[in-house]
Structure formats: structure tokens, C-alpha cells
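Re: [ENG-882] Designed sequences occasionally contain unexpected residues at chain ends

Forwarding the minimal case from QA. C-alpha cells:
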């Protein structure tokens, strides 16, 4: 039984609006490659915004790149980008909560547009939950958390907490979702987190249903997603001083992490699928299959640093071996052509080995956090080049660089403005390279980790703002011969500074607002960072004196 939670005590914690000034999010380095990425990705994202009216209420969401549908899966990740530009972050999350089943189950998506033309023409409202999916509930929790983080709306998140609890309780108890033997979330045998299952030829097309013949197993990405969801729920309870409930969810998170790292780690990266049902697919060496959730696992915090470095090194190694234009594989090597029920799912197509900017963005963010800064920069530069040349970004590409087409995909549409992958790249740019990470809400606790030196940038001005609340934080950074100067502006934030030093340079002293303060050096692989913490009200001027 989950503990009963009462919300009356939260009433005194309601936040007032932080700022009515509508500041914009931008990066200025003097280099068009970096400075142009935010406006270009913003333009892609704007093409995905979609309003629907259900029961007389307008719901604003961001559509899937392959259909006019509002998926919680896409939206929860896209929120990492649109939270800087969009004012309405809550209505879509609210609708998924309002339509939640009594057992806690969340729908995958809803739409009011015909999806399968020309056979489907009705403009009815349609709700879908794909039975083989196990990841939907953690994505709902993630979306709620990110919307709260940007809006700062305490009463709103309090109203959602029972829905978030029920969603996670469903996953922890339902026989389709939870495996008692491993203590992990299970699913049907799909390609990573996608929504159709392997049937060994017993189903005539894509299989979305759970049946008596379903092959069960553990997919690492589901479990890293729930690890992150448990921790985010715990963070909300800690904010509201419900420490006893927070401890429950943090314990669950650590248990899941322990079990996942014990069962799913193959020594180099995470097994694509750990089988619970005996099944062999001819022509598949599962020990070599590197699937798209691996970099996501890193960014959700499940692997140790050494494990994360191993995953990143594997992607770098495969980049040197592959004939594909990028190593952002959905899965590598792919499954044999058509074994999942559709002849279009050949090797190198869609989730069966297609190249996905979504993976590239996650890889870049992981690289910045684990001492592969040059690799993270390289990914962003490649994405900037390909989108500048084409003024388009697709959900996936063939290995030879051709974008998907509707004829060659199982999806109804082929949008040239994919919000899923572009928002992942924005996530890597803002939180990785520029290094502005909100660790609470409204930037009240923030990690500042500028890594511009790895990109050959000596001067940078960065402003990050939530359009929905006006909350913002900004900094200017200068690398000089013997000094790093960083000036931060914020209305009030506990800042954890994590500042990359130039190669072969050491920090002699750190002075903040004229006061010499203690610091420590954190070494991540071959990179040295100056670490310190400081409460910033208004402005802080930080100088790091360098020596050889």
C-alpha cells in the first residue's frame, strides 16, 4: 500500500510569480554555428505546436513528427526544449491526468485528426494506449515535473501528485509491467522503447497487443526512465517537506538502479533486451546490439561514471567502423529485414537501425557530463551543419543520409521539423555546452557548467528563460590568458559552479565579488573543473586566476 498523502499542509508553500519581464533565451558567442542553433531549433519546434479542443477546453501540445497526434512520449522529451519558449506547458499534462484509468494507467496519445487516410476520415476524438508499451507512466511523471519546474505552480503540481503516484503504483504492481523475480519493469520484446513486438511470424503485421504468446523481457530504457521518475517524485516531496514519502521513492529508485546495473549491464553497455521468455531470432547476435536508450540511461543517472564512459567509448568506436553518416543509431546492428512484421522495417530504416538526431542529442549531453567535451561539441557541430544546409530535421535518416519518406516508413507522415530530435540537441546545447541546469524549479537551485573552451569559444553570453513564468538566469564568460571571468545574474539562486579549465592550466585562486573563497578541483577523465557553491542574489562576479 502506498501511504496516504494529505495536501492541506502544502498551502503555505504556494509560489508567487517570479518575474513579469519576458526575457528571451539566447546564446551569443560571435560564432554563427552556435548562435544560430537556438533560433533554428525554436523554428522547428514552433512547427510542431498544435491546439485541439476537447470537451470545450483548448489543449496545447506538440505533435509527434510522424502524425498529428499528441503523445506523452514525445511531449515529455520535447518539454526540455519548449519550456524556454512556450507559455502553456500544463494543459496537455492535465488532459493525460484527467483521462487516467482508475488503476493508474496513462494513455499513450490522443488526437482529433484522421490518422490513416484515406480509410480513416472521421474527426472524432481518439485515445490510444499501446498494450506492449511499458514506458508511458514515467513519461507522464517527467512531463508533470518539467512543467512544474518551468511554471513554478505549486498548487498545480499538488493536484497532480495523486495522479503521479497512481501511475507509478500501476507500473509497480501490474503483471504486464512488473517482474517480481528481477525487481525490474518488464515489457514485450520490442525494439528498445518502440511500440510493436516480435512474434516469430505468428502475427500478420505489427503486433501492438499483449497475448498468451508474448515474449517477455527487461528493456534497460524503461528502468532508467522509472529510476528518474522515482527521483523526481521524491524531489517534489522534499520540496514540500514530505521527507518520509520522499525517502520511500528514493529507496525504490536505488533498488531499481541496483537491479538494472546487475542484470542489464553486459560489461560495455546495456543489453538491448534481457529475456524472460525463451526466444531466439535467427541472424541476431544480441550481445552486440547497442540500442538508443543507452545514452538516455546516462542522462537519467543510472550508470556510474566508468559505465557511462564505456558506453560513450563504444559509440565513438562504432563511428570509426560504420559506413553510416552518423553513429546515432536507433539500434546497431539492426534486426533482419521485416522480422517485426513489416517489410519496410529493413535494416537501416526507422527504429531498426535508422540514424536519429534524438540519439545524437542524448549522446552529446552525456558526453559533456562525463569528460568527452570535444565529442559533445562535435555532435552539435554536425547537427548544426546538416540542419543549416537543409533547413530541415527528421525523426530518422537512412545510414546513407537520406531522410525518411512516408513510402518507406510505417508512420503516416514524414515531418521535416522533428521536435523530438531537435529538442534533444537543444538540451545538449543549453544544459551541456552552455551548462545551465535547473536543479529545482525557477532556477532557485542551479548548476552552472560552462564548457565553451572545449568548443574554441573564448567569449560567451548566455541567457536562459522560462517563458511561462519569466524566471531566468544569465551569465557572461571570458577566457583570458591568465584568468577566467564569469559574471552571473539571477533574482536568487543557489548556484553550483562547475567550470571547465583550459587544458594544462591550473586554478591558483577563486575570487567572488572581491572575496577570495575556497574551491576544489574535480577531475573527469582528462578534464579539470573548478567546483564551488554560492548563493547569488542579483549578480555575482567570479574570477579564476590561472597558472601553468
Amino acid at each position: 500500500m502506498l501511504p496516504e498523502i494529505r495536501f492541506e499542509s502544502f498551502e503555505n508553500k504556494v509560489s508567487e510569480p517570479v518575474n513579469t519581464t519576458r526575457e528571451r533565451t539566447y546564446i551569443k558567442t560571435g560564432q554563427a554555428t552556435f548562435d544560430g542553433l537556438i533560433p533554428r531549433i525554436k523554428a522547428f519546434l514552433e512547427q510542431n505546436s498544435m491546439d485541439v479542443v476537447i470537451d470545450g477546453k483548448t489543449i496545447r501540445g506538440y505533435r509527434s513528427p510522424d502524425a498529428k497526434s499528441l503523445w506523452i512520449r514525445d511531449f515529455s522529451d520535447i518539454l526540455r526544449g519548449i519550456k524556454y519558449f512556450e507559455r502553456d506547458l500544463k494543459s496537455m499534462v492535465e488532459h493525460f491526468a484527467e483521462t487516467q484509468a482508475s488503476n493508474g494507467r496513462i494513455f499513450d496519445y490522443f488526437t482529433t485528426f484522421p490518422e490513416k487516410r484515406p480509410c480513416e476520415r472521421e474527426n472524432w476524438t481518439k485515445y490510444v494506449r499501446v498494450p506492449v508499451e511499458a514506458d508511458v507512466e514515467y513519461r507522464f511523471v517527467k512531463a508533470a515535473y518539467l512543467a512544474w519546474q518551468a511554471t513554478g505552480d505549486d498548487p498545480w503540481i499538488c493536484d497532480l501528485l495523486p495522479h503521479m503516484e497512481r501511475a507509478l503504483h500501476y507500473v509497480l504492481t501490474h503483471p504486464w509491467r512488473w517482474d517480481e523475480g528481477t525487481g525490474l519493469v518488464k515489457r514485450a520484446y520490442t525494439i528498445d522503447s518502440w511500440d510493436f513486438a516480435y512474434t516469430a511470424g505468428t502475427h500478420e503485421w505489427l503486433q501492438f497487443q499483449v497475448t498468451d504468446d508474448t515474449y517477455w523481457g527487461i528493456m534497460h530504457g524503461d528502468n532508467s526512465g522509472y529510476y528518474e521518475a522515482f527521483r523526481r517524485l521524491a524531489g517534489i516531496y522534499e520540496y514540500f517537506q514530505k521527507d518520509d514519502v520522499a525517502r520511500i521513492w528514493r529507496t525504490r529508485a536505488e533498488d531499481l538502479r541496483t537491479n538494472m546495473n546487475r542484470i542489464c549491464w553486459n560489461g560495455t553497455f546495456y543489453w538491448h533486451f534481457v529475456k524472460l521468455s525463451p526466444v531466439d531470432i535467427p541472424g541476431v547476435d544480441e550481445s552486440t546490439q547497442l540500442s538508443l536508450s543507452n545514452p538516455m540511461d546516462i542522462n537519467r543517472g543510472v550508470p556510474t561514471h566508468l559505465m557511462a564512459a564505456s558506453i560513450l567509448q563504444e559509440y565513438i568506436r562504432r563511428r570509426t567502423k560504420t559506413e553510416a553518416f552518423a553513429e546515432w543509431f536507433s539500434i546497431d546492428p539492426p534486426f533482419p529485414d521485416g522480422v517485426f512484421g513489416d517489410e519496410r522495417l529493413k535494416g537501416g530504416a526507422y527504429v531498426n537501425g535508422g540514424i536519429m538526431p534524438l540519439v545524437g542529442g542524448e549522446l552529446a549531453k552525456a558526453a559533456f557530463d562525463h569528460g568527452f567535451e570535444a565529442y559533445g561539441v562535435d555532435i552539435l557541430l554536425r547537427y548544426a551543419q546538416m540542419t543549416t544546409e537543409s533547413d530541415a530535421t527528421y525523426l530518422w535518416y537512412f545510414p546513407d543520409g537520406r531522410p525518411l519518406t512516408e513510402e518507406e516508413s510505417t508512420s503516416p507522415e514524414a515531418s521535416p521539423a522533428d521536435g523530438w530530435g531537435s529538442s534533444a540537441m537543444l538540451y545538449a546545447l543549453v544544459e551541456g555546452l552552455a551548462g545551465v541546469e535547473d536543479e529545482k524549479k525557477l532556477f532557485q537551485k542551479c548548476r552552472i557548467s560552462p564548457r565553451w573552451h572545449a568548443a574554441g569559444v573564448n567569449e560567451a553570453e548566455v541567457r536562459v528563460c522560462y517563458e511561462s513564468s519569466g524566471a531566468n538566469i544569465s551569465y557572461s564568460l571570458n577566457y583570458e590568458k591568465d584568468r577566467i571571468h564569469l559574471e552571473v545574474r539571477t533574482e536568487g539562486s543557489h548556484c553550483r559552479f562547475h567550470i571547465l579549465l583550459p587544458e594544462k592550466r591550473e586554478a591558483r585562486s577563486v575570487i567572488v565579488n572581491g572575496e577570495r573563497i575556497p574551491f576544489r578541483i574535480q577531475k573527469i577523465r582528462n578534464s579539470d573543473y573548478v567546483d564551488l557553491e554560492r548563493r547569488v542574489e542579483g549578480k555575482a562576479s567570479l574570477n579564476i586566476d590561472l597558472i601553468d
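QA comment: On inspection the terminal residues look reasonable. The chain has two domains: 31-433, 445-547. Proposing we downgrade this to a documentation issue.
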